[in-house]
Amino acid sequence: MSEPLLCVENLQVAYPSTQSLAKPAWAVDDVSFILDSGERLGLVGESGCGKSTLGRAIMQLLPQRSRVTGQVRFAGKSVFDLTPAQLRQFRGEAVALVFQDPMTRLDP
User: Fold this and answer.
1) Alpha carbon of residue 63 to chain centroid
2) Whole-number Å distance between alpha carbons of 81 and 86
3) What dotted CATH number matches 6-105?
4) What pTM, to 2 d.p., does this model score?
């Protein structure tokens, strides 16, 4: 059996609080999924539910002070261990984010 193309395991992302004593705000909490080659994944949900944060975590585009735990592997390699050159190639050739303005896309 071949290795999954993208494997996300127990991913959690927290943004630092703007108040010094407040707990961090968890934007993504314990997300796991596997995508094989040829499969696609679409994320839908309410505004603020963590869709963009999940995509940014996978692509390592979060603010530096964000707290990320869990695993993200692409073709068997941890994206958290990629060199800057490998990360640019990963972002430029392997994965992409498509952000949409919901008001122009979803009109009941």
Assistant:
1) 13
2) 9
3) 3.40.50.300
4) 0.82
